[in-house]
Amino acid sequence: MKTNQLRSLSADELKTRLKDAEEEMANLKFQLALHQLDNPVKVRAVRKDIARIKTLLHQQVLAAAKTQAPK
């Protein structure tokens, strides 16, 4: 999924997507271990999606902390 699409999602939606992506990664790793995975590049793509989502969640936390910080 592209970053621009992810930026438009709320924190709850991002957390849901993160959970789904982590479950997909577990399934892909299982298939990879059993040599049933047709496209091993999919593992890399899902791993990068997880990193993107985690980065956006972290950015939202930092932005919220910055707005709440006393000046």
Description of the molecule:
This protein is an all-alpha fold and 71 residues long. It has a single domain (3-68), classed as Helix Hairpins (Orthogonal Bundle). 79% of the residues lie in helices and 0% in strands. The chain has three helices and no strands. The mean pLDDT is 92.
Distance between the terminal alpha carbons, to the nearest Å? 37 Å
Name of the level-1 CATH class: Mainly Alpha
Residue runs with pLDDT of under 50 for 5 or more positions: none
**Net shape:** elongated
Number of strands: 0
CATH architecture field: Orthogonal Bundle
By CATH, the topology is: Helix Hairpins
Radius of gyration: 15 Å
The H-and-E topology, N to C, reads as: HHH
Labels describing this entry:
71 residues, mainly alpha, Helix Hairpins, 3 helices, elongated
Helix and strand topology:
Elements: H1 3-7, H2 11-33, H3 41-68
Helix pairs in contact: 2-3
Question: Nutshell version of this structure?
Answer:
By secondary structure, the chain is mainly α. It has three helices and no strands.
